[in-house]
């Protein structure tokens, strides 16, 4: 039992070059294992205690098994209800997809030549189905040109595992999420051209490079 729980945790939290899954991934695995073990225990008690009692040892000490069986059966029922409610919540609120907000670790730590000047983990209000886009603004620590900053940041992100490919005016790529459950991949877009200054971003320096990470897939 303990070995199985450790194995589930290790598989869930060992990224294998992917983005690490949130804690809910291994907690779900532990919950399913616990429910399965309790169900097996109840079945075993019913099979070996058909008359409602169990006999221990060679002396045949008789103990009533019905209260314990009923208690465990009730616990299983509650656990199954919780699992069903969580599944219903996912399909209604998450549009049937498992998502979590992008994290700093998906772009940090930066090399010494780059500096993070701002981070917004969810631009504006959260969209439908918990869709979210994070914004990271990066500049060069040595006041290098924007083109140099873009090159450095692309190389850094590729070392982290982002499969960035150039397009007309940006670099983009998606990474899968590790873990046991099927999580929606995170996708990153890095703008090559400088964005115009707006009321929502008045202090962003013109040499700042913006990377967007979304959990829409």
Number of helices: 4
Largest sheet: 6 strands, antiparallel
Unreliable stretches covering 5 or more consecutive residues: none
Summarize model confidence as the mean pLDDT: 76
Taken together, the total number of domains comes to: 2
Q: What share of residues are in beta strands?
A: 15-25%
Q: Tell me, briefly, the overall form.
A: elongated
Q: What's the Cα radius of gyration?
A: 26 Å
What is the helical fraction, as a range of percent? 25-40%
Q: Largest sheet, order of strands side by side?
A: 3-4-8-7-6-5
Classification by helices and strands: alpha+beta
Order of helices and strands: HHEEHEEHEEEE
Query: How many β-strand stretches?
Result: 8
* Through-space gap between termini: 35 Å
């Amino acid at each position: 039992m303990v070995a199985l729980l450790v194995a589930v945790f290790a598989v869930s939290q060992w990224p294998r070059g992917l983005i690490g899954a949130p804690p809910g991934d291994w907690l779900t695995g532990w919950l399913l294992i616990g429910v399965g073990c309790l169900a097996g225990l109840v079945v075993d008690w019913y099979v070996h205690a058909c008359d409602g009692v169990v006999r221990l040892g060679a002396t045949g000490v008789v103990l009533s098994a019905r209260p314990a069986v009923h208690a465990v059966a009730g616990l299983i029922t509650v656990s199954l209800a919780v699992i069903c409610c969580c599944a219903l919540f996912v399909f209604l609120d998450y549009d049937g997809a498992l998502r979590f907000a992008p994290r700093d670790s998906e772009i940090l730590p930066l090399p010494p030549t780059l500096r993070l000047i701002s981070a917004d983990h969810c631009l504006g209000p959260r969209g439908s189905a918990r869709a979210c886009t994070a914004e990271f603004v990066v500049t060069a620590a040595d006041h290098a040109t924007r083109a140099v900053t873009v090159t450095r940041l692309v190389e850094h992100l590729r070392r982290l595992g982002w499969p960035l490919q150039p397009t007309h005016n940006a670099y983009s790529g998606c990474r899968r999420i590790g873990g046991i459950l099927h999580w929606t991949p995170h996708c990153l877009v890095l703008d090559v051209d400088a964005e115009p200054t707006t009321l929502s971003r008045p202090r962003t320096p013109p040499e700042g490079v913006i990377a967007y990470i979304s959990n829409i897939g």
